[in-house]
Design a protein that fits this description.
It contains 3 helices and 2 strands; from the N terminus they run αββαα. By secondary structure, the chain is mainly alpha-helical. The protein has a domain of 52 residues. A two-stranded antiparallel ribbon has the order 1-2. The longest helix is centred in the last third of the chain and has 20 residues. It starts with 18 loop residues before the first helix and ends with a helix.
Amino acid sequence: MTTHPLAGKKAPASMLVNVPELVSSYYTNEPKGPVAFGTSGHRGSSFDGTFNEHHIAAVGLRGYLAHRILLQNGFKSKNLSGGYRTYSAVVK
């Protein structure tokens, strides 16, 4: 396995993200379509409107709707608010 050329070095300014601008984009940019999720996380960015507050709300709504469909079809189901941290606290 090779070592990345920047390993152990300070990141160049061109690689850094403007955090205040990113946070502002998260709340102000209109969504530009669905965000693609995979095993290593989201594939969107608040800068281009492909991952923002609207997407988080949609994920929560999707979980709630799935929970309701399961209940209506006779399955036992719970819908936890808070994501994985809440889930891991409950199943301990």
